[in-house]
Amino acid sequence: MKTPLEKIPSLRSLNQQLTNPKFKTAKEIAGWIGALQAQDYSMSKWALGIRLKNSTEVAINKEINSGSIIRTHLLRPTWHFVSSNDIYWILELTAPRIKAAVKFRDKQLGLTDPVFDKCNRILEKSLRDYNHKTREELITELKKNKIDIEENRASHIFLRAEMEGIICSGKQKNEKPTYAVLEEWVPEHKKTNRDEALRELAKRYFTSHGPASIHDFHWWSGLSMSDVKLSLDYNKDNLITEIIQNKTYWMANDYIKPKPDFNEINLLPAYDEFLISYRDRTATLSLIENKKVISNNGLFYPTILQNGHVIGTWKRNVKNDTVFVTINLFKPDNLYPDDMLTKSLTRYSNFINKKIELI
Q1: Closest Cα to residue 60, out of 27, 17, 95, 15?
Q2: Is residue 36 a contact partner of residue 273, using CB atoms and an 8 Å limit?
Q3: Which tens digits make up the pLDDT trace of 281-331?
Q4: Dihedral over alpha carbons 219, 221, 224, 227 (to 10 degrees)
Q5: What SS3 class is residue 249?
Q6: pLDDT of residue 7
Q7: Are the CB atoms for 77 and 69 separated by under 8 Å?
Q8: Statement: the pTM of the whole predicted model exceeds 0.90
Q9: DSSP line for 258-308
C-alpha cells in the first residue's frame, strides 16, 4: 500500500494529463493547466501534444496559426502557452509585478517610458492589419527607427510591449514564431476583476498541478505571498488540503485517484511543467539526480518519467526524416518492459511524423 508521499508523483501525473489525457485540443490543455511553460519553442509543442489524445505537431501548429493558443511572457515571467480565452485576465493579473521586476534593469539600459512608448508605436504600426512578423524582422524595424537594441534591449522592448497588451504571438512563418497585435489576434476580451482572477489562477494551478504546496504556487505564479494566500482563501470550496510529513499540500476537492496497476513511461520535453512548475521537486526527482536534470545555470533537460518518477534523461538529434534518440538512465539496472519504452517512442514518432532510431 502506498504512503501519502508516494502518491504525489502518480497524482501529479494524472492531474497534469500525462496519464490518461482527457482533452483533444491544445487550447483545452492550455486552459486546464492555466499557463504552460513554453521556453523551448519546439519542445513546448510536444509539452502540449504529450498531454493530448493522439495529437500531432501539425495539429498543434494549426492551433498556433489560428490564434486559439497564444505564446507570450506571463507569471514569473517566462514564455508560456495560454488559451486565447485566458490571455487578457492572466496578463492583467501578472503584468504589474513583471514590470516592477525588470524596472531596475530597464533603467540601467536607458529604457524610459518615452522610449518604450516609441517602441510600442513602431511595433504596433509594423504588425497592424495581421502583418505578423518574426523577431528578426521587428528588430530590423526598430533599427530603422534609430532604436538601440544592443545589450539585450530588444528582449526588454518586446517584453514591455507584451506586458502593455500590445503584442503577442502570431502565425508561424517558415516554422518560426512571429508576433501579432494582441487586440487584432484575440479580439474578444472578457473582463475579470482582480479577485476573480486570483481565485481562478489558484484553482487552475492546484487542480492541474496538485498535490502542491503554497510555496509551489508562489514560485509558479510569480504573485506576492499575500496574493497567494488570498487566492487560497477564495478557493475554500474548490480545494482540499492534506498534510504529508508536516507539509501542507493542496489539490482539487474532486480529484481522481490513479489506478493501482498503472505503469507507464513518458518522454518529457525540456522545461516541462511536470518539473519546472514546483519549487520543491523532491517528490518526483531525488536531490542526488537533480543536477543531471537541471544544470547549474538553470537549464532543464528532457527527462524520462516512469509513473511520476524521473528515472533518466533523453536527447534527440533530428536528421532529415529521422530522429536519433539517446536514452540515459540514472541507474543502469532501472528495468521496465521494453514495450513501455517502445510505446512512448512511437507516440513521439507519430507526433513529429518522423522515424525514431535509438542510439
Answers
A1: 27
A2: yes
A3: 999 998 889 989 998 888 899 999 998 999 999 999 988 889 899 999 888
A4: -130
A5: strand
A6: 86
A7: no
A8: yes
A9: PPTT---EEEEPTT-HHHHT-S--TTTS-HHHHHHHB-TT-PBPPEEEETT
> Greatest CA span in the chain, whole angstroms?
67
> What angle in degrees, to the nearest 10, is found between the helix axes of 87-108 and 194-209?
100
First to last CA, the chain: 38
Report phi then psi at 166, rounded to 5.
-95, -40
Question: What's the number of CA atoms in the CB half-sphere (13 Å) around residue 55?
Answer: 25
- State the residue for C-alpha cell 533537460: 301
**What ranges make up the beta strands (E) of the chain?**
36-37, 69-74, 78-83, 167-169, 179-181, 239-244, 247-252, 265-268, 303-306, 309-319, 322-329, 355-358
Three cell numbers at 189? 476580451
Q: Which three cell numbers stand for residue 64?
A: 498556433
d(CA 10, CA 2): 11
Q: How many C-beta neighbours within 10 Å does residue 176 have?
A: 11
Helix/strand/coil for 247: strand
Per cent of the chain over pLDDT 70 is 96
Three cell numbers at 290? 537533480
CA proximity to 50, closest of 359, 307, 314, 352: 352
Amino acid identity, residue 80?
H
Cβ count within 10 A of residue 356: 19
- Give Cβ neighbours of residue 15 (< 8 Å, ≥ 6 apart): 207, 208, 209, 210, 251, 252, 255
Query: 38, 79 in Cβ contact below 8 A?
Result: yes
Give me the residues paired with residue 80 across strands.
37, 72
Count other Cβ atoms within 10 Å, centred on residue 93.
Answer: 23
Give Cβ neighbours of residue 136 (< 8 Å, ≥ 6 apart): none
Q: Is 359 helix (H, G, I), strand (E, B) or coil?
A: coil
Instruction: Quote the CA–CA distance of 234 and 203 in Å, as a whole number.
Output: 9
The tens digit of pLDDT for each residue in 195-221 reads: 999 999 999 999 999 999 999 999 999
Distance from the Cα of residue 122 to its chain's centroid: 29
